[in-house]
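Issue 218. Parser rejects a valid record. Input:
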Amino acid sequence: MKIAVALHRDSDAPARALVLPAIAGSAAFGAAIGSFVGGRQILYAAIKMPIFLFGTLAVCAALFAILTPRAIATAVRTIFTTTMVLGALAPPIFLAGVSLPKPAAYSHMVLILTAAVAIAGAWSVARLKAALPSTGLWLAWIAIYAFVGAQMGWLLKPWVGYTMVADRFIPLSQNLRGNFYEAAWGTLLNVVR
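Output the parser choked on:
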């Protein structure tokens, strides 16, 4: 119920008033992600999740501004919606993270997190469609944010540590080798073979 109230109120609030709640919601979800490994990974993931969302927005901002005059406000509202849903899902995910057997349930945790992101993303994308003047603009927006976001997620990985060791926060030196798209293609080839 509180999520519905928060999401309803965001339509009247200035975008800058939504940034701190969005950071809090994304940090809560990040902490839930880190709960699988525990310890410092909870803090690392809680810091990385807001960096991921707002870093992706920062990279996309100029292109979004070309697409629509109120792009930044619309993007912040979309991130706010995403983070409110993710924040609401954080407590059960945190519980799953501390309860699942380690490291055997790594794939289970990844599936739980993927489902949470899919739910939050679907809700946000539906609200974004209502905020944009055309379906073409909406599809372009999604494509741009997804393309940049996938690589941003790659740069900030690991999110769920399968090695059960905290990840050194942002190991960019390792993550600059290759990219998300190259890794996805390699994975697809391995599955097909």
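Fixed in the parser; the record now loads. DSSP finds eight helices and no strands in the chain.
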